[in-house]
């Protein structure tokens, strides 16, 4: 079932449509007056602003929301507007279905969201453990590290309800990167932005492991064919730095 936005999972642990943010009172949003921009400007000419290398971490992104006084033309409303480019699902040579763009996409532009059912940890773990080695896994676990040492986890499963993002393949040298973007509540939208200029006809991809734009390439762990006695799936991205196997996250297989 196609859904452009996140929906509540079967466990009902989180409702992504709930509005909990108060919103700003601006007519024209700008730093530092706008409460939604208290962490700094998010976008410049529809492009996400790069992380300051000196900071060593990404600033949280909050867009203006339903409760804000500013209008739909506010420059701090990008991801919530949805798809702005023509994309196409196509059959790849070795990777099954994939997603490509039919038009040029400039570096920094929002491309699409990875949307699906928002799950709690226990339901995500139950679904993962019910899969067989032949099943495709669409569940993504995103972990955000807070300044106080806490970790916020978001689990999205577009297996049965999702959007075009579910067709994105992994690449060890991707042209997209993922950023959690919050609009109406603390449940983030998993937004994918262009990491470089992307030509028309080019396949779109991101790094399933989350390393890209987060951890230096030099710190990558060498790939092995098995982890926890479970065989890993081969990677066919064809990148020069390909690790040979798709990323593996064992956290949902471990006991709580």
From TrEMBL:
A single MF term (Gene Ontology): zinc ion binding
Reactions the enzyme catalyzes: L-lysyl(36)-[histone H3] + 2 S-adenosyl-L-methionine = N(6),N(6)-dimethyl-L-lysyl(36)-[histone H3] + 2 S-adenosyl-L-homocysteine + 2 H(+)
Domain Post-SET as annotated: residue spans: 231-247
Top-level taxon of origin: Eukaryota
Protein localization: Chromosome; Nucleus
InterPro entries hit by this protein: H3K9_Histone-Lys_N-MTase (IPR050973), Post-SET_dom (IPR003616), Pre-SET_dom (IPR007728), SET_dom (IPR001214), SET_dom_sf (IPR046341)
Pre-SET domain span: 22-82
EC id: 2.1.1.357
GO cellular component: chromosome; nucleus
This protein's record includes keyword Transmembrane helix: no
Record's protein name: Histone-lysine N-methyltransferase SETMAR
Organism phylogeny: Eukaryota, Metazoa, Chordata, Craniata, Vertebrata
């Amino acid at each position: 079932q196609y859904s452009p936005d996140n929906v509540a999972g079967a466990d009902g642990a989180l409702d992504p449509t709930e509005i909990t943010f108060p919103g700003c009172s601006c007519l024209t949003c700008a730093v530092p007056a706008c409460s939604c921009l208290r962490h700094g400007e998010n976008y410049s000419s529809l492009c996400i602003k790069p992380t300051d290398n000196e900071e060593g971490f990404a600033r949280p992104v909050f867009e203006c929301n339903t409760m804000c006084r500013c209008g739909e033309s506010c420059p701090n409303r990008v991801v919530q507007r949805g798809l702005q480019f023509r994309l196409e699902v196509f059959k790849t040579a070795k990777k099954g279905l994939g997603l490509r763009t039919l038009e040029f996409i400039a570096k920094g532009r929002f491309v699409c969201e990875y949307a699906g059912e928002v799950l709690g940890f226990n339901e995500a773990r139950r679904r993962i453990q019910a899969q067989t080695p032949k099943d495709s896994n669409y569940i993504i676990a995103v972990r955000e590290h807070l300044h106080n040492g806490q970790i916020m986890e978001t689990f999205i499963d577009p297996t049965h309800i999702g959007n075009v993002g579910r067709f994105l393949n992994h690449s060890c040298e991707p042209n997209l990167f993922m950023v959690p973007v919050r609009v109406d509540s603390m449940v983030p939208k998993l937004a994918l932005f262009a990491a470089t200029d992307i030509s028309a006809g080019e396949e779109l991809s991101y790094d399933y492991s989350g390393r890209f734009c987060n951890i230096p390439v030099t710190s990558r762990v060498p790939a092995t064919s098995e982890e926890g006695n479970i065989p890993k799936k081969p990677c066919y991205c064809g990148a020069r730095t390909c690790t040979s196997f798709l990323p593996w996250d064992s956290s949902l297989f471990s006991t709580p």
